[in-house]
Design goal:
Largest sheet: none
Number of helices: 3
Structural class: mainly alpha
Order of helices and strands: HHH
Helix content: 40-55%
Number of strands: 0
Strand content: under 5%
Length: 83
């Protein structure tokens, strides 16, 4: 009987140790943006905007160097040893 009481107390203590504690007050944190050394935040934003502008419309020009052909022309090239 005493053993079961001790085991029950031990399990209760372990369960409360693993339970999350209610946070009564939240600590506010300040998030800072990354700015490389030697640049002001305005210069960094300007540089990022310029890089974003360069990355726009990459596929507008379409595929270059790819020439679509029919299956028949592929077979003919294959028979000639060109494919």
């Amino acid at each position: 009987m005493a053993r079961t009481a001790i085991v029950a107390l031990a399990l209760t203590g372990a369960a409360t140790a693993l339970a999350p504690t209610p946070s009564s007050s939240r600590v506010s944190t300040r998030l800072n943006a990354y700015v490389p050394d030697g640049l002001s935040p305005e210069q960094w934003k300007k540089m990022q905007a310029k890089e974003k502008e360069v990355k726009k419309n990459l596929g507008v020009g379409g595929a270059r160097g790819f020439k679509s052909r029919s299956f028949n022309s592929f077979v003919e090239a294959l028979e000639k040893g060109e494919a």
